[in-house]
C-alpha cells in the first residue's frame, strides 16, 4: 500500500531544493479526480496482477496484487492517467514531488513514469503501441519530512529533478536523441513491478 500525493515545483536553487511557487497536480486541495485514472496491469500480457487507486481525503491509496508467477518471474501493476486529451506543460518547473504517508505505506520500490508521446492503437490488433517512458524508482527510504508544505504533516516527500528520470523502451534502458518534452507531458503512471529476478 502506498499513499501518494503529487505536485510539481519551481526551483531556482543550485541545490535543487524545491521552492515556492508550487502547482498541485493531484492531492492536497485538488483531490484525485479518479475518473482520470485507469489500471494498466500485466493482464494485457496474460498475467494476473491487478491494481487499484482509491481516494482517501487529500491522498490516494495505490494497492492491489503483484503476480510474479504467471509470466515466469515478471509482472507489473500500475495506475495511469487515462485519455488522449490530457496534457500538462511542466516546462517552467524543476521537478516533481511525491509525498507518502509512511504509516500507511510499505518499503517496496515504486516507479513514477512520465510520457510525452502517445500513439494511436495498432490497426491490426487494437493494442496500444509502445513509446519511450521516462522512469524514476523510489521508496519510503528516499523520503524526508517536509517543512512549509501543503501536504499533511504526517507525510514525507521525495523531490525528483527532471534529469533524474531515465528513458526506457519496453522495460529496458533506451538511448534517445531527444530529452523529455516537459511542455507536452501526455501521461503519468505509478507502478510496482518484478522482472528478470528483480523484485520491487
From TrEMBL:
<feature type="domain" description="NADH:ubiquinone oxidoreductase intermediate-associated protein 30">
    <location>
        <begin position="34"/>
        <end position="195"/>
    </location>
</feature>
<dbReference type="InterPro" id="IPR013857">
    <property type="entry name" value="NADH-UbQ_OxRdtase-assoc_prot30"/>
</dbReference>
<protein>
    <recommendedName>
        <fullName>NADH:ubiquinone oxidoreductase intermediate-associated protein 30 domain-containing protein</fullName>
    </recommendedName>
</protein>
<dbReference type="InterPro" id="IPR039131">
    <property type="entry name" value="NDUFAF1"/>
</dbReference>
<comment type="similarity">
    <text>Belongs to the CIA30 family.</text>
</comment>
<dbReference type="InterPro" id="IPR008979">
    <property type="entry name" value="Galactose-bd-like_sf"/>
</dbReference>
<dbReference type="Pfam" id="PF08547">
    <property type="entry name" value="CIA30"/>
</dbReference>
<dbReference type="GO" id="GO:0010257">
    <property type="term" value="P:NADH dehydrogenase complex assembly"/>
</dbReference>
<dbReference type="GO" id="GO:0051082">
    <property type="term" value="F:unfolded protein binding"/>
</dbReference>
Amino acid at each position: 500500500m502506498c499513499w501518494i500525493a503529487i505536485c510539481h515545483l519551481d526551483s531556482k536553487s543550485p541545490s535543487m531544493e524545491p521552492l515556492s511557487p508550487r502547482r498541485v497536480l493531484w492531492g492536497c486541495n485538488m483531490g484525485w479526480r479518479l475518473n482520470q485514472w485507469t489500471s494498466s496491469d500485466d493482464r494485457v500480457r496474460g498475467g494476473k496482477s491487478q491494481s487499484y487507486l482509491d481516494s482517501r481525503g487529500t491522498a490516494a491509496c495505490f494497492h492491489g496484487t503483484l503476480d510474479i508467477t504467471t509470466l515466469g518471474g515478471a509482472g507489473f501493476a500500475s495506475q495511469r492517467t487515462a485519455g488522449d486529451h490530457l496534457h500538462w506543460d511542466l516546462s517552467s518547473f524543476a521537478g516533481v514531488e511525491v509525498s507518502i504517508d509512511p504509516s500507511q505505506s510499505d518499503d517496496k520500490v515504486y516507479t513514477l513514469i512520465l510520457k510525452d508521446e502517445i500513439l494511436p492503437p495498432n490497426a491490426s490488433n487494437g493494442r496500444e503501441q509502445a513509446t519511450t517512458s521516462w522512469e524514476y524508482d523510489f521508496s519510503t527510504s528516499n523520503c524526508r519530512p517536509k517543512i512549509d508544505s501543503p501536504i499533511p504533516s504526517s507525510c514525507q516527500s521525495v523531490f525528483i529533478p527532471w534529469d533524474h528520470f531515465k528513458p526506457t523502451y519496453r522495460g529496458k534502458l533506451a538511448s534517445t536523441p531527444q530529452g523529455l518534452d516537459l511542455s507536452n507531458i501526455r501521461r503519468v503512471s505509478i507502478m510496482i513491478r518484478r522482472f528478470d529476478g528483480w523484485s520491487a
